[in-house]
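G., before I forget:
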Amino acid sequence: MIVAEQKRLEEISSLISDAAKVLIVGCKECVTVCLAGGEREVEILASTLNLKGKADGNPIEIVTHTLQRQCEPEYVKELERVLDREEGIDVILSLGCGVGVQFIAEHYPDYWVVPGLNTTFAGGTLEEGKWAERCGLCGECVLHRTGGICPIIRCSKSILNGPCGGSQDGKCEVDDGVDCAWQLIYDRLKGLGRLELLTVLEPPKDWSKARHGGPRAVVREDVRL
Amino acid sequence: MNALVDKGADGAMKSGSNLERVLRSGHFAVTAEVGPPQSASSKGVIKHTKHMKDYCDAVNLTDNQTAVVRLSSIAAAVHVINSGAEPVIQMTCRDRNRIAMQSDLLGAYSLGARNILCLSGDHQSFGNHPTAKNVHDIDSIQLVKMIKDMRDEKRFVCGDDIKANEPRFFIGAAANPFADPFEFRVVRLAKKVNAGADFIQTQAVYDLERFEEWMKAVREAGLHEKTHILAGVIPPKSAGALRYMKKVPGMMIPDHLIERMKKAEDPKEEGVKLCVEIIEALKGIEGVSGVHIMAIMWEDIVPEVVERAGLYPRPEVAAGEQTA
């Protein structure tokens, strides 16, 4: 899933400082799971901004709505009803990931749309309240050659023939709280009796399939209408 | 005038380069481009430099242009210096991060380079390494500011002081009057000038009408008084060359010029004639301080173009001779 974190309250306040009426939009997918932008977080943020507005002598009217998915037009269109019903909305504050913010902005060209979250990474839940990055979205998966551990995103240098000389006691030189991905890869392949995979020289990667080739799109002719 | 955008007519020399002296003395400047080879040979760069050095004020060395691997612009600049001309090192943001760029700036200055042109760089998908990563750690405008701060504030982009021997470059940037959105192009140029661009080299001019429209907006914004604008020109070798350029994003080639080249009995002669006509027109546009001749793969033609455009001999401006 996409993991995101809410921006600090001061920053969110500054993004809506000129607004008298704000629509906060949540999303029931990834950001609900990572507790950043679901229905619950939307309501908590609404009350907090309300209280802050009153305390600052700058009261604001807040409307809330949480979509099933901000990254799909059919759900984003739902906001039309809200915007028709609620006159005078100055700012739409999205608690979706960066995709959600952009889908709302694309659909509502007359509205000022701002992000309430920092979209952080593609990852998963390690334990309650702890999420970690797992996928670099490079467009050409190498996990079958690295024992199911991604060197692109879990190695600080994205090294394909690691580990580098900074690996010590299983930790990365950048931060001893971070596992060395190549130690993990080595240990796992050793356990599986597949260490010979690591004797193969990995050639330079085709980064054109990652963001370096420009913005990406997937088109599936077989499922298009 | 803001010190940040001081064009330099009344201030101290920034780099002391020949190009800076020529521009500050009010002469119509000429720069020309040399593309380094896809090999480790210095021969071509040296040959082209010796051939054109008396016909231009500085020689641009492209930085892996069109994202094709070539001899480095900094190494090529050393061959230019050793051949008796002054280099303009082109530096793109595509291949190096801020650490490598600052390191190369120190190195280039230590080798005698004094002019630099800051560019984004063509995307690697156009070159011969389309699977490469691109860097773009900083962009071309940030690069201009970084080099200016190294010179004027004596500090690296991280904020650390350069304790001694800071690199003092004459800083160039590019501008494309033919790209979209047209109205924003002058705003972006102002951003480059405010960031510290001492001179500008433009995309090649074929559409004079559009260029004049752009220069009018440049003058209205007063930018021609804050930076030196060198208009780019490319002598076309054939109608095919023009047709090819027309397909390049951000190039504008009027159809009548392609027709004219197609009808010409001697296309090369017609190409030189066309280029000279464009230079003559550019000389008459207020705010244009010089021309930048990009005769890539046809470097030998530069002296003829310069001579026929009435720009030969080149001025000799000694240090301290420039007038306010």
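Chain A has two domains: 2-121, 136-213. Chain A touches chain B at residues 204-208, 210, 212-214 (CB under 8 Å).

More on Monday.
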